[in-house]
Known about the structure:
Layout: H1 3-15, E1 20-21, E2 28-38, E3 43-44, E4 54-55, H2 69-72, E5 79-87, E6 92-93, E7 98-105, E8 110-117, E9 126-134, E10 141-147, E11 153-158, E12 160-161
Parallel strand pairs: 1-6, 4-12
Antiparallel strand pairs: 2-3, 2-5, 5-9, 7-8, 7-10, 10-11
Amino acid sequence: MPEALHKCFVVALMLGSCATPAVADNLTVGEIRVRLFFNDTATLSEPVSEHQSLKDLPNGSAKGELPTDALTRRGPSTETLIDVVVRGAPNGYFQGRRVEVDVTDSKGATVEHLSARVGPLNESGVYFASFLLRDTGCEALIVTARLNVSKQQVTRRLDFECSE
């Protein structure tokens, strides 16, 4: 019995199902989604659009400045949830694959390096790797996501700023 099939059989016996091992070349980072975490209500915003202004979020004073009601109706935010969308074969399983995220400031200095394993993909061939960035809100950040087995990467700029 081929090793991959044997592993799948063992997983099926243990879990009652079998994710299909997939080829690494089919796995890609699709996009980076961003949502604000509102500290006073422990809720998340709707996804933040690519060019959305993120001004004065730590003190909640941005209420009249952001165009989307879903972002403005809540209070202060000093944490940001990053969802890295990984795409591949439906129901695929990629053993040993990791999402690597580098967060830098606008000058290129490293703020944080994060990593998470890629779990089984859903029936649509998607897996969401989520990361919480703390102490966000006044400094622009650049988030770069890639897989540990690929040179392909996706970058997203977060234009946080605070007025004096």
